[in-house]
TrEMBL record:
GO cellular component term of the entry, any: cytosol
UniProt organism field: Desulfuromonas soudanensis
Domain Cyclic nucleotide-binding: residue ranges: 12-132
InterPro entries in UniProt: cNMP-bd_dom, cNMP-bd_dom_sf, Env_Response_Regulators, HTH_CRP, RmlC-like_jellyroll, WH-like_DNA-bd_sf, WH_DNA-bd_sf
Protein name: Transcriptional regulator, Crp/Fnr family
HTH crp-type domain segment(s): 146-213
Keyword Kinase: no
Keyword NAD carried by entry: no
Transmembrane segments: none
Keywords: DNA-binding, Transcription, Transcription regulation
Gene of this entry: fnr
GO MF annotation list: DNA binding; DNA-binding transcription factor activity
Length: 225
């Protein structure tokens, strides 16, 4: 795992100098984790944050009944738990690799000292936390004002990019259902309905978008209250 390359591709550290890059490389620790290994639990004292070098990590909460609700799927080059090193210093959710993953771990105390000494890293950190808040606000808005078909359409369009017409789901359908705030049965019915309406075609984890304009209209629609 090339630490410098991973740090350079991480949006949180965009624009740092070569000197700052060297300091960041010295502070972090390389860790490999297996699928299903719990990295931290909700309410635990935050000891630091992570950057995904390879693999995928799910961030999730558990209901009192033990039902899992996926909040984010963290891809290579992205960070997670950085907000937890501030404030009350507790992890707000659970984190678990979806496959064997190589991670960079930045210990809290050493990283906060680095922020104190290097202003550009601190400025980038503020930007990263702002992106996290916007992402969280968008997620709350979608759960409140959009139904499952609209959320699914938006997810598929985001995955496909500006011009894409074919996507491969990076997670299982049960995990996708949790990520969209629903259950597997509802997701299956929604996929079948979109297929029947000739908006998509589903072949296992591969989904072809057949009518992008109608999918965009669906993604922008809101619930009727």
């Amino acid at each position: 795992m090339n630490i410098a390359t991973i740090i350079k591709t991480c949006p949180l550290f965009a624009g740092v100098t070569e000197e700052d890059l060297e300091f960041l490389s010295q502070v972090c620790k390389c860790r490999s984790h297996e699928k299903g290994e719990v990295l931290f639990s909700e309410g635990e004292k935050a000891l630091g944050f992570y950057v995904v070098g390879s693999g995928k990590v799910k961030i999730y909460k558990l209901s009192p009944e033990g039902k899992e609700r996926i909040l984010h799927i963290v891809q290579p080059g992205m960070t997670f738990a950085e907000a937890a090193i501030f404030g009350n210093g507790l992890y707000p959710a659970y984190a678990e690799p979806l496959q064997r993953s190589d991670l960079l771990f930045f210990p809290k105390r050493e990283f906060l000292q680095l922020l104190h000494d290097h202003s550009q890293i601190a400025i980038n950190m503020i930007g990263g936390l702002s992106r996290f808040l916007r992402q969280f606000a968008t997620q709350v808005e979608e759960l409140t004002f959009k139904d499952v078909p609209a959320r699914l359409a938006g997810y598929l369009l985001d995955l496909a990019g500006d011009e894409g017409m074919r996507v491969e789901l990076p997670i299982s359908k049960s995990q996708l259902a949790s990520n969209l705030g629903t259950v597997s049965e509802t997701l299956s019915r929604t996929l079948r309905k979109l297929s029947d309406d000739a908006l998509i075609q589903v072949q296992g984890k591969v989904i072809d978008i057949l009518d992008r304009d109608r999918m965009e209209d669906l993604a922008s629609s809101t619930k009727e209250f």
